[in-house]
From TrEMBL:
Transmembrane segments: none annotated. GO terms for molecular function: GTP binding; GTPase activity; guanosine tetraphosphate binding; translation release factor activity, codon nonspecific; translation release factor activity, codon specific. Increases the formation of ribosomal termination complexes and stimulates activities of RF-1 and RF-2. It binds guanine nucleotides and has strong preference for UGA stop codons. It may interact directly with the ribosome. The stimulation of RF-1 and RF-2 is significantly reduced by GTP and GDP, but not by GMP. This is Peptide chain release factor 3. It holds the Pfam family EF-G_D2. Gene3D superfamilies: P-loop containing nucleotide triphosphate hydrolases, Peptide chain release factor 3, domain III. Its main location: cytoplasm. It comes from Candidatus Terasakiella magnetica. GO terms for cellular component: cytosol. Signal peptide: none annotated. GTP binds at residues 17-24, 85-89, 139-142. Belongs to the TRAFAC class translation factor GTPase superfamily. Classic translation factor GTPase family. PrfC subfamily.
Length: 527
């Protein structure tokens, strides 16, 4: 098989949702269809595999949430899917955000009773930054939920996305009978009692097919016909270009727990979801079919093995054909790395057991030299763009229990910041470190890591700080003036870049007003 064909087969995607919408359940069902998996980290906390995980993951176990992302690869309909799992709990959204920089499309799962929730919206916004195409799955139709029209309307209004239903639900809750597949003119009925068997759809010649009269009760069929007529009047036709540009979402209805609607979703992804896309760098776009291998680090996971202080750097391959044992250039340090021991996430029965292509993810053991956003290439000095670092929403002071360990703590925090697990700022005045995260639970995980990995018991304390903004200005002198005049409210991040530490929203607004030439950034590009 040629490199091109291998690459075009890839579907690298993630699922975005608010906790409890059904992401884990859907993931399990997708894997069921894929029939196979190499699990890097289990889907969710179940059974022994969990217990074997490392110490700080106790936090995760105790709370029953999933901190670690993982990659799951499976084949279906001659496509190879890479599903990048993302932590569901809202306190770990930063990892989730980063993972979204490594996918080519996303599935948005909504709970039919709840519609778009807080976390759905945030994650969607990250997808929009990169125009990631979205496929929507409205879940839990086996329960009483909202009217399908209302949900479509909400998606359209709140996310400014065109919606095109791919299927239409027949009934809901206890009276949920199935869906009509609008793309393929098929009736798919719920097969009560047969949970994990895959019911074949029944082909129909449109909604006037007399077959339907035998298969559906009269009132349900009448409603289906009415609904579909209305839907076809209200919604645009599916337009591939518009979907790929991130302006339109096909919407599937189903019930993940009953494996209902999952096959249609997967077929949809196989058919229309994009294969690996070109990736932006400072100088040029990297086409996936370029012969030379390139990739970037989008995530670093610490402590996969508690006995070693190893971290795994997850790399999204952007081009070429990777083979175990290759030498790759680490662009930031200009050093060659011998990649003899990568983790490859492989579908079962894949011929290419030692290889990976653009769109795939590889994991490299790493002792702190690889950072989020770093490029690996066969020599070219590339800088991938669009891998953001997010302004923290909660800031706390960090100090060691033992004051003699202040210097060690500084080093540990520097490493953690480089890894991308938190923001770390050194205020110009004072000796404390300010650590910023997007979710409060991250402090617990950090304290645990710093204690076990660096042997430094650390205390986090509340501050009166509201948020941090990276400050830039084309005019060097103006920036310097700002920093001089605001010594009490500025500091450096781990790359020695200046940040403004605001006490409240007013303080931030005022600074922006007083220094109109300066830019205050909510995100910072990595690297
Ligand atoms: P996550 O937090 O998004 O990963 O959600 P889970 O997959 O863990 O699901 C949250 C809860 O919803 C669990 O109790 C699931 O059993 C339940 N659930 C998931 N899918 C369905 C569904 O299709 N119907 C119903 N009734 N419950 C579901």
């Amino acid at each position: 098989m040629t490199l091109e064909t291998e690459i075009y087969k890839r579907r690298t995607f993630a699922i975005i949702s608010h906790p409890d919408a059904g992401k884990t359940t859907l993931t399990e069902k997708l894997l069921l269809f894929g029939g196979a998996i190499q699990l890097a980290g289990a889907v969710k906390a179940k059974g022994d595999r969990r217990r074997a995980r490392s110490d700080w993951m106790k936090v995760e176990q105790e709370r029953g949430i999933s901190v670690a992302s993982s990659v799951m690869t499976f084949d279906y309909l001659d496509k190879t899917f890479n599903l990048l799992d993302t932590p569901g709990h809202e306190d770990f959204s930063e990892d989730t955000y980063r993972t979204l920089t490594a996918v080519d499309s996303a599935v948005m799962v909504l709970d039919a009773a709840k519609g778009i929730e807080n976390q759905t919206r945030k994650l969607f916004e990250v997808c929009r930054l990169r125009d990631v195409p979205i496929t929507t799955f409205v879940n839990k139709l086996d329960r009483e939920g909202r009217d399908a029209f209302e949900i479509l309307d909400e998606v359209e209004q709140e996310l400014a996305l065109d919606v095109v239903p791919a299927s239409w639900p027949i009934g809901m809750g206890r009276n949920f009978l199935g869906c009509y597949d609008l793309f393929n003119d098929k009736l798919i009925l719920v097969d009560k009692g047969k949970n994990d068997t895959l019911t074949e759809g029944i082909e129909c010649q449109g909604l006037d097919d007399p077959k339907l009269d035998e298969l559906l009760p009269e009132d349900a069929l009448e409603k289906l016909r009415e609904d579909v007529e209305m839907v076809r009047g209200l919604c645009p036709e599916f337009d591939l270009e518009s979907y790929l540009a991130g302006h339109l979402t096909p919407v599937y209805f189903g019930s993940a727990i009953n494996t209902f609607g999952v096959r249609e979703l997967l077929e949809g992804l196989a058919t229309v979801a994009p294969s690996p896309r070109a990736q932006p760098t400072k100088d040029r776009e990297i086409e996936p079919t370029e012969k030379k291998v390139t990739g970037f680090v989008f995530k670093i996971q610490a402590n996969m093995d508690p006995k070693h202080r190893d971290r795994i750097a997850f790399i999204r391959l952007c081009s070429g054909h990777f083979k175990r044992g290759m030498k790759m250039k680490h662009v930031r340090t200009n050093k060659m790395i011998n990649v003899h021991n990568p983790t490859l996430f492989l579908a079962q029965d894949r011929e290419l057991a030692e290889e990976a292509v653009a769109g795939d993810i590889i994991g490299l053991p790493n002792h702190g030299n690889l950072r989020i956003g770093d490029a690996l290439t066969e020599g070219e000095a590339l800088h991938f763009t669009g891998i953001p670092s997010f302004a923290p929403e909660i800031l706390q002071k960090a100090r060691p229990e033992d004051p003699m360990k202040a210097k060690h703590l500084g080093k540990a925090l520097q490493q953690i910041a480089e890894e991308g697990a938190a923001r770390v700022f050194k205020p110009l005045i004072g000796s404390d470190w300010i650590v910023g995260v997007v979710g409060a639970l991250q402090f617990e995980v950090l304290a645990d890591r710093i204690r076990t990995e660096y042997n430094i018991p650390v205390i986090f304390e509340a501050t009166s700080l509201y948020t941090a903004r990276w400050v830039t200005c084309d005019d060097h002198l103006k920036l310097k003036k700002f920093l001089d005049e605001n010594r009490g409210a500025t500091g450096d991040d781990h790359d020695q870049e200046p940040v403004f530490l605001a006490r409240n929203a007013w303080h931030l607004d005022k600074a922006q007003e007083d220094y109109p030439e300066l830019e205050f950034h909510k995100t910072k590009e990595q690297a």
